[in-house]
Amino acid sequence: MEFEIKFKVWIERDGEVVFSSAREQLLREIDKEGSINKAAKKLGISYKKAWLLIKHMEERLGYPILEKKRGGVSGGGSKLTEAGKELLKNYEKIIDECAKIREFNKLFVEKAR
């Protein structure tokens, strides 16, 4: 019999989600694609949903996480601000620390034998 410790991590402010794994995925795709629209399509969500997620994150965080360039002849685009990149790094650190909890699985396995 093997036990498995599972968890989900998200960050809240005043009871509202600020950041989560889904938002992390969106930012990583925007960083990779250079476009909110392309990232949204790749993740299977609407542009409007992606835009609202970004808007709400920025409002709750109190700082911009994307630099947005409107479309036109040369096209638009988006890239992460330095603060946005730092947010991703810090979230990754939190996930890495939480993942260490999985090592406690050994304690449950030893007791179950």
How would you describe the overall organization of this protein?
- By secondary structure, this protein is an alpha+beta fold.
- The protein has one domain: Winged helix-like DNA-binding domain superfamily/Winged helix DNA-binding domain (Arc Repressor Mutant, subunit A).
- 55% of the residues lie in helices and 13% in strands.
- The protein has helices at residues 21-33, 36-43, 47-61, 82-99, 105-112; strands at 11-13, 16-19, 66-69, 77-80.
- It has a two-stranded antiparallel sheet with strand order 1-2. A two-stranded antiparallel sheet has the order 3-4.
- The longest helix is centred in the C-terminal third of the chain and has 18 residues, at 82-99.
- It is elongated.
- The N and C termini lie close together (8 Å).
- The mean pLDDT is 88.
Please identify the top-level CATH class.
Answer: Mainly Alpha
Low-confidence stretches: none
Instruction: List the secondary-structure elements in sequence, H or E.
Output: EEHHHEEHH
Distance between the termini: 8 Å
For this structure, the quaternary state is single chain
The largest sheet is: 2 strands, antiparallel
- Overall residue-averaged pLDDT value: 88
Count of runs of 4 or more consecutive helical residues: 5
- Based on CA atoms alone, the radius of gyration comes out at 18 Å
> What is the domain tally?
1
Beta fraction: 5-15%
| Class based on secondary structure composition and strand pairing | alpha+beta
Give the name of the CATH superfamily: Winged helix-like DNA-binding domain superfamily/Winged helix DNA-binding domain
Query: How many β strands by DSSP?
Result: 4
CATH architecture type? Orthogonal Bundle
Helix content: 40-55%
Predict the CATH topology.
Arc Repressor Mutant, subunit A
